[in-house]
Each structure stands twice: as C-alpha cells, then as structure tokens.
Amino acid sequence: MAELRHSSSVGARASSSPMKRDEDASPLIHGTTHDDDHRHHFSRDRDRSFWSFLSDDPRVFSLLNSKISLFLVAVFAIVGLISAFSIFNRLNAPYLCKKDGIVLHCPHVNEAPSLWENPYSATTSWKPCAERRDNGISDLPPENETNGYIFIHAEGGLNQQRIAICNAVAVAKIMNATLILPVLKQDQIWKDQTKFEDIFDVDHFIDYLKYDVRIVRDIPEWFTDKSELFTSIRRTVKNIPKYAPAQFYIDNVLPRIKEKKIMALKPFVDRLGYDNVPPEINRLRCRVNYHALKFLPEIEEMSDLLVSRMRNRTGVSNPYMALHLRFEKGMVGLSFCDFVGTRDEKARMGEYRKKEWPRRYKNGSHLWQLALQKRKEGRCPLEPGEVAVILRAMGYPKETQIYVASGQVYGGQNRMAPLKNMFPSLVTKEELATKEELDGFRKHVTSLAALDFLVCLKSDVFVMTHGGNFAKLIIGARRYTGHLHKSIKPDKGLMSKSFGDPYMGWATFVEDVIVTHQTRTGLPEETFPNYDLWENPLTPCMCRA
C-alpha cells in the first residue's frame, strides 16, 4: 500500500508541472503543435462564419430543417412498413410445428384445450392438393408405345397391400409402363383369398388415374402362357432393394421390361423410397392413396351405419373415440417384451416364441435384458390397462364412447377388465352390428378390416397403441383431410418410466401425460427426409389453405 501511494504521488507531481514537460519536449514536436493550433483556429473561424451565414439567412435554415424532417419521416415510414409486414406475415403464417431432435415445437394459440379437436388455426392452415385436376391433359404416350407391362403381388394384410398398390402405380409412372391390376396375395397370417375387386372400386381406380398411368384389368390376351408370369424366373425381377430410388428402376428394371414386354416384380414390399424419388411421384402416391383407392359402396355404407350408431349411443349426438388395440397373441409374442402375468402364462408364452421365432429365441437367456431395453425405448405394445390410465389422465371421462378395433386380445376378458372398468361404454363392430349385418363381410377378412379402418378414420379421436400400417395410414389420412380431429400417438418410452416409478403421485402423472401429449395429436409438421409419407403427407401432398 505504501508503494502504491508513493507511485500515485510521483505521478501527480509529474502531471502538475506542464511547463517543465514542454521545455523538455523535442523541438520537432513543439513545432508540430504550433501548426496544429494554427489549423484549429482556422477551422473554428470557418465554422463560425458558416453558422453565422445560416443565422443571417433564415430561408436556408428553414429549408435545411424541412429536408431533415422529410428524411426522418421517410426513415420512420420504412421501419413501420417493415414492422407491419413482419407482423402480417407472422399472423398469416400457416400453423406448422418444427422438430428439434425428438421434441416437436408447435405455435402458441390462445384457445382453451379441447379433448376432441386440434387448435382451430392448425385445421385451417393446410389443404389437400394431390387430387386430380379437372380437364387434365394426359402426358401418356399412345398404348402401342408403352415400354411394357408390370405385374405385382400385393402381399400382407389390407394396409400393407394398399401401400404396395400405391407404389406400383408410382413405379409404372417412373418407367412409363402399363400396370396390370395388382393381385392381392394370400397372406400366411390372414389366410385370405380376397381379390382387388372384392375390396376396391376398380372402375374408379382406373378412371381416376387415367391421366397418370395406363392400368389394365388383366394380362394382355397376346401373352398366352399366363402361368409363366407367376412361376418363371425369366419373367421376374427379384433384385430390387428396399426403398430403392427412382433411378434404380430406370437403370435396372426398365431394360428388362423393354426386352421381355411383361415382367413381374417380387417381392414388392417397401421397394420404393421417399426422399430419393421426384416430388411429383410422391404426390402421385398420395393421389392413389387418398383419391383413387375407394372401398366398394357396400363397405362404405356399412361403415357409415356403424359410425352413425357410435355417434348416437347416448340418445343424443355424441363424439366417439376409436382405439386401435394391438395386443393379439402374435403381436405380444413377436414383440419379445415382458408383460404382467402368472408364471404359468409366461412359460407358455416362452414356448410359443421358441416355436415361432427360434432364431430370435435362441436359448432364452438374453430375453429378459432385451425386454427391459425394448420397454425403455418405447417399443412394446401398450397393455389395455395402461391405455385406460393414460386416457383418464388426459381427461377423458368414464362416459366416453370408445370403438375398439382389435383382433383377439391376448389374455381375454381378464386382460381387458381394467380398460372396461374405467371406460364401460366400449364396443367392437361385433357388438355394434347384428350377426346378419356382418355375415356378408365375413367371407373376406380384409372386408372386416376395411370396416375397422373406416370407422377409425371417421372418429373424433383416434388412439393408437403400437406401430403398424393400419395406424400409420389412418393418421396420415386424418392429417391430409385437414388435421381437424386428434390422432393420439402415446409416448410409450416416457410412459414406461412413469408406470415404473413407485413414488410418482397421480397429480404428477397427469401433468406429465398432458404436457407430453400436447403435440402428439396429428398436428401439421413437415415430412422429413427418410420419413414415409403415409403417416405425414404434408410436404409433398398439401398446400397452404
């Protein structure tokens, strides 16, 4: 401190004797200072004469003030216009959620939350735009100039077959080929011999797409050996990779079609990509899915009857929820997840898995860790009781009318008891319709699946409990028609943590459920690369309303 005070006093003394500092200064510096003083006096005199000139002439001063005022007004006007334009854009921007990692951020709305509908602004921002234009002009070449014919087997259940049909039309367009009406191949699980014309309106399908792709009902008559198309390797393209780009078909499949004139493509499950095909091809797939593929009138009429009965179960008009409950024995076994049950029940499920999936089962020693990991990652089907607790936490009351689309639930009535106790107004199509009404649809399993599909599609709220093409196509169709009604996709990973927390109270659980699912209701969001458009068709197939 003493040294600091000493230094300060020395500095003070040095700065208090300017005369001595000037005497010690260099003559060069001293001379420069004199010139600077001279220029300073000259500048000051010039400025004084300028301002005295202005003060002597009031007209000049007034003119200068006017120009400054005009300049300031112009600046404020430009800033105001920019601000107004920004506010206008913000007010008129379409409702669109943005994804940040796995979190979806949606615009804030000044609306009270509804159990049955999405925010109004979300339902008025986007409209479908994949439909066929009226008075369309076909760009198809004459029939005798087609590059050839392609034939596919649409495999799997109804919804997997639907996707295959959409992809077949797109592939035919890519190669400028004629599409032979797809065959719905018998599935090992469904055991169904349904034909295309048993489910879909063939005339509408061909007519609606007549400006896009040429479609024929059957193999051309000049091709005599039709069995060859089903059995011969020479007539089959088998090396198509999953999610193949459009260019693959042009480079590898088209030359063989031109050579052989008719070729079968198989297998054809997921054999066309999404972000590696032109946008107009994705738009065409939407056109097929949402406009060209219509169920037969009798299926549509029966579904409307079921919907009407669901909406009038209380004696007055009421909304209803559709629940796609995926808890059949096959789904439980294939998931390799662990579920609540007796020791004997778990042993029987172990034997079932060992028989059906021996390569995955191995010796069974790794399955417990696998089950824990899958549940943590949200890859296990929700049990009926878990669904009931989630819906109650969301705020749906005991009187909620629920239509259940499901196969034979694993565990039967005992497994369904918690859901039925919390929501007793729960029905299936078998309980909603008479046996005689459904008899006409029982000869085709896919007809019954089509009824479930349409009743779920037209519901006020749709809830899925596990993945699959059924839920994916319904959520996508509900988005395409305007995002009006909720399509709830539970966060199974987060729910598994909440269900496994013995210290979490009901109030905390309710808060977690509500906050987590605010944006998981089928709201508008961009279709991301590598993300199939069946669940979210917005980017390629919808426009600003």
TrEMBL record:
Its main location: membrane. Signal peptide: none annotated. Belongs to the glycosyltransferase GT106 family. It is a single-pass membrane protein. It is found in: Membrane. Residues 32-42 have a biased composition (Basic and acidic residues). Residues 7-17 have a biased composition (Low complexity). The chain crosses the membrane at residues 68-88. Residues 1-42 are annotated as: Disordered. This is O-fucosyltransferase family protein. The lineage of its organism: Eukaryota, Viridiplantae, Streptophyta, Embryophyta, Tracheophyta. The keyword Amino-acid biosynthesis does not apply. GO terms for biological process: fucose metabolic process. InterPro entries: FucosylTrfase_pln, GDP-Fuc_O-FucTrfase, GT106_glycosyltransferase. The keyword Membrane applies. One of its GO terms (cellular component) is membrane. Pathway: Glycan metabolism. One of its GO terms (molecular function) is glycosyltransferase activity. Pfam families: O-FucT. Gene3D superfamilies: 3.40.50.11350.
